[in-house]
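Sample intake sheet
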Amino acid sequence: MPAQHSFSLKQARRLALAAQGFGGRQLSAPIKATRLNQQIERLGLLQIDSVNALVRAHYLPLFSRLGSYPQPLLDQAAWSQGRQRTLFEYWGHEASLLPMSMYPLLRWRMQRARQGQGIYAQLARFGLEQQATLRRVLAAVEQQGALGAGSLSTREERAGPWWDWSAEKHALEWLFAAGEVTVSGRRGFERLYDLPERVIPAAILQQPLLEEAQAQRQLLLQAATALGVATEKDLRDYFRLDPGDSRARLAELLESGELLACEVHGWKHRAYCLPQARVPRKVEASALLSPFDSLVWERSRTERLFDFRYRLEIYTPQHKRVYGYYVLPFLHNERIVARVDLRAERALGRLAVHAVHEEEPGLDEEGIRALAVQLRQMASWLGLEQIQLNCPRDGARRLREVLE
């Protein structure tokens, strides 16, 4: 089928940035809950990750787009009890915070998990073989509510590293994937689980169950809204749909006219966009991006859009790292122009800049000033009084001059 639209790479980049919420005016007035929720609705989800070298992953994308905002606003939206709660936790793009309105769109995934599909093989086996443990853990949640895995564990031996889960932790993870429990809150970073009817609004739980195909079409449309222009793989990856499901639903959306086929110059694969897609004349934005930001989390798309090869080196041995432990891409006026290795040294009250790696052709004076502004804002937002530059490169020297 011929493409109905053709975009240059620069146009595709502008479409993507605008769709992701960049280029809007950052207000000097305090950010309110309404604006925060509007931004999350636009993105469709925030990825959660345990790494806390700078700040937890789910906080940073909103800072990148809105500027300084009160982190407790997001905590209230995610884990408060009552009307302030507008988000829920589930498997979206990995572990994610999602708007409550999307809960019905993921119930098919919960049903598949009950059948052992779409979850880790080890967890699927546990669901088949450990029914008694599942019933015992679910009964404990029913009776006591808001429980963490640690308070239920009956293991006596010391836990090993990484995924050496207790039987109770396995049970809670299976019940969570199956929608039998949901996350009520967190204690530190530990999930507290409760029954959905005590967390999710009744009006949402009582909605008729959507057919899988209908829910998957809505997820693809949400992905297209958040990405601006995207290949099938880009769209599928946003909510981690199976390739077969994604391709079937995409064909249906093309037939109905809810998505249009298009071409992006230089891309090998066909792309897709919404019929109402409009390319901005320009996008002016400067932002430090989380490694888990939806603008860059699909690394091959990041290369196609920005000619920027990006890999997270947290799990790379130190002597093999090229750029650093926790490196944030720096977006400036439609390009990713640098990589900044940052750490929040909370005990010392400072934001440590361990490295600044410039992309070709390098940072101009405007770019250096913009990076300095972002670092100052981030330090202030995190409650850190100082910025310490530990990088000997020329870009860091110029940055130091601006900061001073």
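Comment: The radius of gyration is 22 Å. The mean pLDDT is 93.
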